[in-house]
Amino acid sequence: MARDDLNLVQGTLDLLVLKVLAWSPQHGYGIARWIKQGSGDTLIVEDRALYLSLHRLEERGWIDAEWGVSENNRRAKFYRLTAAGRRQLRAKIDDWRRYADAVAQLIRRDEPAPV
């Protein structure tokens, strides 16, 4: 599968954004860079998808945002995890592990599905 064909499963981006922000407040570019570098350049987040995720998480009260200055001395919006966001991150990690385990179990099967 070509790298261009790898898309984030729906809901995965929200989980990854929460995970990044669990370390420290970040601006959008920093979040996208962490995901790209942390995945060995396999996962690349499109700007539109990232900002839709950030707005969705902010509306749910899982992150807060405030304006600041980036490391390049540019004005940037910094996002940070809220207490509700930390709780949600733990729940999403548990959900993701169950999902990944179920998919892995199906992939390892040697017999066909029942008819």
Tags for this entry?
single chain; elongated; Arc Repressor Mutant, subunit A; 54% helix; 115 residues; 4 helices; alpha+beta; 3-stranded antiparallel sheet
In short:
The protein is α+β, with helices and mostly antiparallel strands and 115 residues long.
SSE order and pairing:
Elements: H1 12-23, E1 26-27, H2 28-38, H3 47-59, E2 63-69, E3 75-81, H4 83-108
Antiparallel strand pairs: 1-3, 2-3
Helix pairs in contact: 1-4
Outline the structure in words.
- This protein is of the alpha+beta class.
- The chain has a single domain (3-108), classed as Arc Repressor Mutant, subunit A (Orthogonal Bundle).
- The protein is 54% helix and 14% strand.
- The chain contains four helices and three strands; from the N terminus they run H-E-H-H-E-E-H.
- It has helices at residues 12-23, 28-38, 47-59, 83-108; strands at residues 26-27, 63-69, 75-81.
- Strands 1-3-2 form a three-stranded antiparallel sheet.
- It is elongated.
- The relative contact order is 0.15.
In the CATH hierarchy, what is the class? Mainly Alpha
CATH topology: Arc Repressor Mutant, subunit A
* Helical/strand content category: alpha+beta
- Quick one: biggest sheet? 3 strands, antiparallel
Radius of gyration: 17 Å
The string of secondary-structure elements, in order, is HEHHEEH
The CATH superfamily is known as Winged helix-like DNA-binding domain superfamily/Winged helix DNA-binding domain
Strand content is 5-15%
**First-to-last CA distance:** 29 Å
Approximate shape: elongated
pLDDT averaged over residues: 90
Strand order of the largest sheet: 1-3-2
| Unreliably modeled segments | none
Helix content: 40-55%
Total beta strands: 3
What's the domain count? 1
